[in-house]
Design goal:
The protein is of the alpha/beta class. It has ten helices and ten strands. An eight-stranded parallel β-sheet has the order 3-4-5-6-7-8-9-10. Strands 1-2 form a two-stranded antiparallel sheet. The protein binds NADPH dihydro-nicotinamide-adenine-dinucleotide phosphate.
């Protein structure tokens, strides 16, 4: 048995799990689809019921894999998808959402994000999102890859303050958001969704991460995720298409890290001392 997954509260009052599942690179090949469906279902079984996808991933086939996995279990899932910036016009957003709904095999997306900023004015995209909300096609809307100044600009447009999340690159080796973006989001009650939370596997070879994890009989991935789960208003969405690695990642909630080890992690992965531009993958 694991500790419960902590909940993060959206501005609407809706609670979602702070540990979910990413699906980038799923749907790329037909032969891997069965394993991907199995792993998504395993994540749901383990309570990692927030599933993140996008129209971009595998040209929509990630959404199809997610649709297959959640068929018959839609009510268990908090479904997140994203619109390409070049589709995020008044009409384009509505049309992209319809296509995503079809691929996902559902009549609503719980959280619909603008994948990154593009040429369409924020006010137009926000109005399109609000319309989708009133039509019941989406529950909430949010943004992705928005830095602090982008969030300020968003909050200045009509209904921009209804933004329910900002999904950004954040992990031990990318702590830039801690300087101003994370505090800003915490102050404004906007959850921060941490993408690439284990840096696509690259940080797992770090000697200090391995050393500290071992002291808890944990894995480096579990410690990297525990670091994010320790932060208020942060949701980590590790991707895995392996049932065993999803089970491993779920165990991140069970770690209780001492102050001494947090300090050691800070030494290995220093927090930012000045504002740097938000990084993107
Ligand atoms: P992650 O940091 O989640 O790493 C995923 C990689 O790590 C995969 O190759 C996976 O392989 C492997 N992995 C997962 N768990 C373990 C483990 N316990 N031990 C060893 N390896 C492991 O990277 P992502 O870039 O996929 O980010 C997560 C999600 O965030 C994406 O899938 C996507 O949903 C979202 N995202 C959003 C972006 C945006 O612009 N909004 C940009 C990038 C990501 P395997 O599957 O074989 O287990």
């Amino acid at each position: 048995m694991h500790e419960d997954i902590p909940a993060v509260t959206l501005p609407s009052g809706k609670e979602v799990p702070a540990l979910g599942l990413g699906t980038w690179n799923m749907g790329e090949t037909r032969s891997s689809a069965d394993d991907e469906v199995k792993s998504i279902r395993k994540a749901l079984d383990l309570g990692m019921t927030l599933v993140d996808t996008a129209e971009m991933y595998a040209d929509g086939r990630s959404e199809e894999v997610v649709g297959t996995a959640i068929a018959g279990r839609r009510d268990e899932v908090f479904l997140v998808s994203k619109v390409y910036p070049w589709n995020a016009s008044a009409r384009g957003t509505a049309e992209a959402c319809e296509r995503s709904l079809t691929r996902l095999g559902t009549d609503h997306i719980d959280l619909y994000l603008l994948h990154w900023r593009g040429e369409h004015p924020l006010a137009e995209t926000v109005a399109a999102f609000e319309r989708l909300k009133s039509d019941g096609k989406i529950g909430n809307w949010g943004v992705s890859n928005f830095d602090t100044d982008d969030m300020e600009e968003l909050f200045a447009v009509p209904e921009g303050k209804n933004c329910a999340a900002n999904e950004v690159l954040y992990n031990l080796s990318r702590r830039g958001p801690e300087f101003s973006l994370l505090p800003w989001c915490q102050q404004h009650g906007v959850p921060l969704m941490a993408y690439s939370p284990i840096e696509q596997g690259r940080i797992l070879k770090n000697h200090e991460l391995i050393r500290i994890a071992k002291a808890y009989q944990a894995t480096p991935a579990q410690l990297a995720l525990a670091f994010l789960l320790d932060r208020d208003g942060v949701i980590a969405i590790p991707k895995s298409a392996s049932v065993s690695r999803i089970t491993e990642n779920r165990g991140a909630t069970d770690l209780e890290i001492t102050e001494e080890d947090w300090t050691a992690l800070d030494a290995a992965f220093p927090p930012p001392t000045r504002k740097t531009a938000l990084e993107m993958l």
